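QA checklist item 7 of 12: single-chain prediction sanity check.
[x] sequence parsed
[x] length recorded as 255
[x] structure emitted
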Amino acid sequence: MDLKYKNVASVYDLVYEARTEDVEFYLQQVAKANPSHLAEFGCGTGRVTLELAQRLPHTQITAVDMDADEVQVLDDALRARGISSVRTRCELIQHFEGHDVDMAIAPFRVFQHVLDLGELENCLRQVSSSMRPGGRFVFDLFNPSIPLLSKTGVIASQVFKDDDGYRVERRVTVNDRDYFRQTQLIEEDYTVTTPDGQSYDLHWHYQTRWYFLGEVIPLLQRSGFDIDRIDSDYKGTPYGEGDYPGDLVFHLVSK
């Protein structure tokens, strides 16, 4: 059977197609900086990348992600749309090498997949070393919700339908929190039903770490960045003035 959704990476765009606020935010930030070479870390399937490439065709984009399945989805989309301004690289951020990046972004809480402070600092140093002095680096993290950190179990149960008649049931469960290491196991389980009524399951289990603002700021300063500002949302609300818990949106300048 020729399945439309062969793995979790192929379902990603259906699940997150309604998430557009951060896409518009990053488009505005990149358009304002007008870089000749942009690096996007944690590009995934290209939710942000493709919009950037289509609206800013003269910007060369290097799109980096460690998940080969997601990079393949992006590569297929780039070919289908005839986009040649994007180069993809399947690798860890810690291994990225470059020296001519004018601007870097890391959308949708990419660094929360880095599980300890030492590795996060390594990532930030690698990003900094790839950038020209005065380059802009913008990324976001989820501001930890203290009430939610006390809860485990099912945190989301959703149903998605696409134009081809597929039905996707998604269930997200949080288990095995380690409050010393600030990590948690997230289990995403999908049941896909084809247009002719056949069903099959997909699974994606992974760990994330939550970061508090006070532990991130020293890493940024040691890694070669000046902090321009920190917002609590994508509208430019200064940290501490937005709705709780909101996000941590960092605007940095490379030294």
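[x] summary fact logged: Residues 68-81 form the longest helix (14 residues).
[ ] second reviewer sign-off
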